[in-house]
Backbone:
């Protein structure tokens, strides 16, 4: 589920300002100087020792330091620059066959040992209601290792003024191009994560992610109508070099209706187009409801993939662990066991992959110490696998975990979260322009919009940012008030063409919510432009009062 | 350490004020202890306790602001936070929308703390889960649920002499009960400030009954129906709409409360005359802190009166621009009701649909507040005053503005924590005509 957490963060009060705003290195040296792995190892050993002594049969320790910077701008003003820092330790144990978890921001040996004992006490209390003992798939200890997101420019070292100026420049471009209001934000994440377990792993990771959402709103004062156009750039697990836009990373959308981006992002150009297109949306033709062939651009399709394939194939949902909140899944074990369940058309292949460069789910090891890997979820249209953690692997006959464990903070317990789940490109050479040529009555949809899907992932209704009518193989003009509704299985079986690898690129969800208490995670979904035939489109225009 | 007394926080805020050389200083100290237990498949899956405390220092030199937060409270750490905030302020650009700190204000305390709730322990949480788990096991059902309780405090202070300190408690319980074959699902939600008003057994029985009654749902054609919405079914829809009450958005033409030509719809009658919605920090059922996120005192504000838009939400900056008085942003939402139970609303219905819960609600068109979402965990067909049979879930495309215009009957308000909203809410069940269900969902 794509939650609105980022809105809460954006609207919240300022967090910890531990880095310089405009240039001077007030505390930058602190930020760039992580705690030594050797010191973390001592603390981790203390926790594991205390847990084992208290009766734990297994213990893992996550020592985390999370640095975030959120810059929010509106029009030509910087609204807020929020920096947060959070450090602490989360300890998970198994005792008497049950899990226990405790966390503390007291980074002293005593504080950590106390938290470890508390985790064991909780596990023993939980064991009374446990029906079967936790069973962990084996993980070979990797000893002392380190992994870091490949980055060229570290956001922590850059003057905030440079970043704020970029956002203001984007807003100005949008306003100049026709928007009445512009917002541009920059979310920057650095997770310094140390994982140790009684399996013999001591893993030090340094993870970076960033996202720069924009929004242009145009108002027609005479009619009182207003319309918005969001950004078409994706969040990425990269350094700040992502904003050094290169011509080679720009993609011409089908019919040349706009510019799209791959490995780098021209936020000012996108904002300019957003301002222009927001104004165009005010006078765009309102869609005639009916069946259409939909040509879906990757910047739009990623969220459809996220909701239609990513979430339903989470094994914890399939088993019922999310039944009270995020829901269960139509893709139950019975369907997987047949080895014949036609999730989609034969051309539809989905791969889970934690190793894709630049993807939000890119890691070296998950939060159970399992190395990143790649595996099939849907092959030739058939459901072949799920996303599993160590305690779930045996349920689907796997000998090892898929590495899908994640916690959003040192203070939260790790659980099953989706990896990058991506649609493989089509095997035959096909461009978006060529795909459109085969469409008699269709709509080309770009960008993310309103997304809603039921708790078992059957019935969905999705919208986008930009819509263009396709008539007899040609894009004829912009449309508005478009949303499409379908059933997940019917939709993916209606997949009639997928562009080739030249068009493959990722979109991403930065604050995907799940669990109770709710946690967020970030994940990318790649695809090429893809066509779905005969999909029901509704008109969403309404009049009130 | 996580729950500090007024004396302790006064010392900390005084220490901060004494250290700063800025023109003005604002201090916010918060702490909480949050306990929880989560269960699924009739067994506990996680349980925990999270403590957190932090002090935030915001300073200004002229129109330049800087903020620093730290979760260590020794003198050295506090001084470090003050110096960082000052350094940042000196380096920051002028904020053109800068508004000076609030003058010294006496907040009228609200009744947000109940000691019994603060005393909730792991055994209580486990017992709340056990009622649900054992009740389900006995009947061959499967439970999944979450109980969480929170004890917290907040202190606000500034260099104008403003000071406020108040503690709060709350709890939330949600339970989904499913039949083993997956053909039935029921749900319940309870929110309370006072644990003595929460009965986990009563709550569990409701979800169990709904699950048993919801088996073998029949398909009803999508279309416009009279619906009886339980409070949890409308809380998120109302929250979406209330976001549009921001005066700046309305004046700038970006809200359903905007009018052509740059005006807003203050004073317009947009809803049925039965609709009265207000916020009140001192309400006995949903009391909230008597200040908002910007330390502005909250007041009772009549947002909708007899169906008319009676007030908009002005930030301090926008109030100054528009020559209006700014009032603290709402922390709770209360909708007027009657003494009628949901059962009475059902009894008065010839043909209709009873909705337990709505799910995954998203804005489709902010111009009309058109929302889409689905029903979930207990949708029933009502005929001649009785629940006749369970029905399959629907997707809806509906605006809460239209919904509140089509009210036929209102029930008794109950306390409900919205799924994704920031408000504490006291919302009645409602009978609404012509609610727009647009498609069927096979999800149970």
Residues:
């Amino acid at each position: 589920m794509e939650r609105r957490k980022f809105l809460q963060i954006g609207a919240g009060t300022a967090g910890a300002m531990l880095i310089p705003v405009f240039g001077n290195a007030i505390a930058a040296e602190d930020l760039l100087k992580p705690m030594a792995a050797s010191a973390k190892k001592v603390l981790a050993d203390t926790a594991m020792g205390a847990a084992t002594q208290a009766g734990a049969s297994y213990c893992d320790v996550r020592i985390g330091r999370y640095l975030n910077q959120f810059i929010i701008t509106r029009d030509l003003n910087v609204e807020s620059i929020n920096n947060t820092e959070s450090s602490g330790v989360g300890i998970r144990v198994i005792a008497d066959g049950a899990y226990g978890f405790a966390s503390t921001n007291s980074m002293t040996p005593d504080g950590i040992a106390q938290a470890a004992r508390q985790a064991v006490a909780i596990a023993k209390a939980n064991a009374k209601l446990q029906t079967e003992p936790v069973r962990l798939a084996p993980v070979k200890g990797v000893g002392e290792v380190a992994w870091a997101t490949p980055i060229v420019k570290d956001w922590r070292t850059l003057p905030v003024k440079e970043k704020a100026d970029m956002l203001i420049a984007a807003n100005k471009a949008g306003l100049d191009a026709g928007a009445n209001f512009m917002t541009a934000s920059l979310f920057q994440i650095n997770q310094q994560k140390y994982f140790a377990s009684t399996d013999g792993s001591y893993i030090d990771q340094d993870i970076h992610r960033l996202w720069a959402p924009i929004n242009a709103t145009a108002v027609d004062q005479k009619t009182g109508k207003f319309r918005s156009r969001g950004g078409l750039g994706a969040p990425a697990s990269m350094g700040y070099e992502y904003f050094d836009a290169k011509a080679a990373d720009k993609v011409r959308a089908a019919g040349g209706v706009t510019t799209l981006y791959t490995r780098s992002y021209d936020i000012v150009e996108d904002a300019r187009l957003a301002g222009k297109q927001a104004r165009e949306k005010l006078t765009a033709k309102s869609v005639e409801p009916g069946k259409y062939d939909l040509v879906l651009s990757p910047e739009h399709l990623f969220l459809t993939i996220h909701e239609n394939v990513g979430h339903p194939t989470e094994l914890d949902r399939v088993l019922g662990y999310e039944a009270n909140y995020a829901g269960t899944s139509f893709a139950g074990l019975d369907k997987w066991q047949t080895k014949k369940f036609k999730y989609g058309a034969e051309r539809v292949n989905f791969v889970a992959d934690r190793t894709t460069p630049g993807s939000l789910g890119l890691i070296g090891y998950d939060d159970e110490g399992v190395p990143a890997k790649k595996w099939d979820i849907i092959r030739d249209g058939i459901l072949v696998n799920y996303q599993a953690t160590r305690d779930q692997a045996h349920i689907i006959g796997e000998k090892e975990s898929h590495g899908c464990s994640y916690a959003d903070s040192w203070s939260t317990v790790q659980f099953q979260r989706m990896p990058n789940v991506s649609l493989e490109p089509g095997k035959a050479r096909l461009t978006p322009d060529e795909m459109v040529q085969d469409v008699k009555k269709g709509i080309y949809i770009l960008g993310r919009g309103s997304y809603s899907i039921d708790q078992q992932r059957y019935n969905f209704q999705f919208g986008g940012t930009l819509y263009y009518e396709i008539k007899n193989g040609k894009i004829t003009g912009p449309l508005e008030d478009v949303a499409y509704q379908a059933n997940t299985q019917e939709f993916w079986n209606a997949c009639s063409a997928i562009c080739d690898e030249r068009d493959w690129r990722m979109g991403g969800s930065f604050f995907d919510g799940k669990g109770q208490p709710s946690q967020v995670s970030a994940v990318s979904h790649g695809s090429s432009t893809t066509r779905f035939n005969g999909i029901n489109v509704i008109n969403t225009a309404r009049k009130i009062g | 350490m996580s729950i500090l007394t007024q004396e302790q926080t006064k010392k900390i805020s005084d220490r901060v004020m004494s250290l700063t050389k800025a023109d003005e200083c604002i201090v916010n100290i918060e702490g909480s202890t949050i306990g929880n237990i989560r269960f699924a498949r009739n067994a506990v899956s996680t349980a925990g306790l999270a403590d957190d405390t932090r002090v935030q220092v915001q300073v200004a030199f002229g129109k330049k602001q800087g903020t620093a937060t730290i979760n260590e409270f020794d003198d050295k750490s506090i001084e470090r936070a003050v110096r960082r905030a000052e350094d940042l302020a000196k380096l920051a650009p002028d904020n053109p929308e800068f508004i000076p700190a609030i003058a010294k204000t006496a907040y009228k305390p609200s009744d947000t703390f109940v000691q019994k709730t603060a005393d909730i322990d792991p055994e209580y949480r486990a017992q709340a889960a056990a009622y649900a788990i054992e009740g389900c096991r006995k009947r061959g059902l499967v439970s999944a649920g979450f109980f969480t309780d929170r004890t917290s405090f907040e202190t606000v202070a500034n260099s104008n002499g403003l000071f406020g300190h108040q503690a709060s408690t709350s709890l939330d319980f949600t339970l989904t009960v499913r039949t083993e074959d997956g053909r039935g699902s029921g749900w319940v939600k309870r929110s309370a400030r006072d644990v003595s008003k929460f009965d986990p057994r009563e709550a569990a029985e409701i979800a169990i009954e709904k699950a048993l009654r919801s088996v073998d749902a029949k398909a009803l054609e999508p279309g416009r129906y009279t619906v009886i919405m339980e409070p949890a079914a409308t809380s998120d829809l109302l929250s979406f709409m209330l976001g549009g009450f921001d005066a700046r958005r309305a004046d700038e033409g970006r809200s359903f409360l905007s009018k052509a030509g740059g005006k807003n719809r203050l004073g317009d009658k947009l809803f049925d005359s039965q609709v009265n919605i207000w916020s009140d920090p001192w309400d006995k059922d949903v009391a909230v802190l008597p200040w908002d996120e910007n330390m502005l005192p909250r007041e009772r504000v009549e947002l909708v009166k007899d169906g008319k838009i009676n007030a908009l939400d002005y930030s301090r900056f926008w109030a100054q621009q528009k020559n209006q008085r700014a009032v603290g942003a709402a922390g709770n939402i209360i909708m007027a009701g009657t003494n009628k139970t949901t059962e009475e609303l059902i009894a008065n219905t010839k043909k209709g649909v009873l909705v337990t819960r709505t799910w995954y609600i998203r804005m489709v068109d902010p111009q009309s507040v058109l929302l889409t979402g689905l029903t979930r965990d207990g949708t029933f067909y009502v005929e001649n005053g009785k629940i006749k049979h369970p029905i399959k879930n629907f997707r809806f495309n509906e605006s809460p503005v239209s919904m509140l215009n089509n009210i036929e009957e209102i029930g008794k308000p109950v306390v409900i924590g919205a799924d994704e909203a920031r408000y504490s809410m006291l919302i009645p069940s409602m009978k609404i005509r012509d609610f727009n269900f647009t498609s069927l969902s096979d999800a149970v």
